[in-house]
Amino acid sequence: MNLPFTRKFILLYILLISSVLIYSNFALAVTKDDVNAVYKEAEQLQKKSASIGNQWRDTAKVLKQSQQAADNGQYEKAVRLAKKAKTQYTLAIKQVDANEAYLKSVPFYDADATPEQDVKIIQAFFREKFPKLPDKEFANGFYAMDPIMRVNWEAIEEFPPYMPTVERGDTLWKTKFANGKSYNHCFTSASVATNYPRWDRETGEVETLPMTINRCREANAEKPLKYGKGEMLALQAYIAYESRGNPTKVVVPADDPRALDAYKQGKKFYFSRRGQLNMACYHCHFDNAGKNIRANVLGPALGQTTHWPAYRSKWGDMGSLHRRYKGCNKQVRAKPFDFQSKEYRNLEYFHTFLSNGIPVNGPGARF
Ligand code: HEC
What CATH number belongs to 115-366? Predict the structure, then answer.
């Protein structure tokens, strides 16, 4: 190139500036190390959030998406997603602290009340709220309150969708184990649903009916059944059916402080705000019971435990109370707990105790 000196100079100058720009841009670009650093922070918060039993439904998914983006070399996106997960974990951790103050303002939550005091106040609240409902109607959830739903439900109950499951359970109940014994050797009779969940002094934990069923099996050298489906639900359905009409009578033994503590944990769970929507069970099933939410009428907390397992049209199948707990947790975008987790067993203890006196009418049929 035969350019005059000034032009050469300008060209050189432009080259210099652009290389500086390119270099600085390169330096600003997000690297894999940046992703790793944020990701690690998010993971630590996840651990903390899990250890205090409060995670949101979709946060782990966000963190996973972050990892996928990183694997694809999309580091900027990966950092953005990991930061989003970090924020959600942080808020879930804060939610637990905020609950402490919040719980003090809830009229039905008294951490120090005895189970008997709770039942008295809470049952009185619902009887006053629905003065026309006889006690046994509370066991029918929102069908007791919505006349159109009720007509549909009664039509379903004419050919109950849970009956084949009850019959299967009946057969299983009577089938002998390999050692010649059967469930009758563990249970005094099949009509025991009213006593569950029960307090187990040996383990110092709440024992649910499915746990007793598995204990019985293991004591007789049989493999435990999977919770929440198949044979386990069939046995539960049969036991519920055999227990129909008898009042719920859950016991929190006054002489074992661990039992009271488990009950209190369950009570706290029920009244604590959870999930991204920051709502407690209490928000939907106390004051708002009887009101509409989308296509549903919200049922009252009282009587919610009497009819499990239930056939739900939405599930197209039978499901357990814990499956329903998971569903209600997920609705408010909280991460659900496992079937038979300690959290759900304690919740079931408190929740069922509330319905003491209300007759068991399982299995149920629900939309
Ligand atoms: C955002 C509102 C909402 C929250 C919060 C909520 N639920 Fe529900 N729940 C529903 C709706 C809607 C239904 C279906 C209608 C009904 O049966 O009340 C339902 C149904 C249920 C049922 C089945 C009732 C029946 O008769 O079969 C149980 C049990 C239940 N919820 C327990 C809980 C528990 C325990 C919590 C807290 C972990 C909770 N719910 C939180 C909305 C909610």
Answer: 1.10.760.10
For residue 12, the model assigns a pLDDT of 59
Question: Which residues have C-beta within 8 Å of that of residue 256, sequence separation ≥ 6?
Answer: 199, 201
Sign of the alpha-carbon dihedral angle for 85, 86, 89, 90: negative
In this prediction, residue 19 carries a pLDDT of 57
Q: Would you say the CB of residue 296 lies under 6 angstroms from ligand 1?
A: yes
CA of 328 to the centre of ligand 1 (A): 5
Q: What is the DSSP string of 295-332?
A: TEEPPPSTTTTTT-SEEETTTTEEE-HHHHHHHHHHHT
Give tens-digit pLDDT for 37-54: 999 999 999 999 999 999
Enter the pTM of the model. Answer: 0.91
pLDDT in tens, 187-201: 989 999 999 999 999
**Whose alpha carbon is nearest atom 34 of ligand 1?**
281
**CB of 273 shorter than 6 A to ligand 1:** no
pLDDT tens digit string along 276-329? 999 999 999 998 988 887 777 899 999 999 999 999 999 999 999 999 999 999
Q: What are the two backbone dihedrals, phi and then psi, of residue 359, each rounded to the nearest 5 degrees?
A: -65, 145
Give the total residue count for the chain. Answer: 367
Residue 16 has a pLDDT of: 53
Structure tokens given for 66: 């972050």
Please tell me the distance between residue 285's alpha carbon and the centre of ligand 1 in angstroms: 7
Query: Which of 304, 335, 343 to mutate for ligand 1's pocket (most ligand atoms within 8 Å of CB)?
Result: 304
Cα 202 to Cα 198, 210, 222, 257, distances in angstroms:
12, 17, 21, 14
Which tokens sit at 339? 């079937």
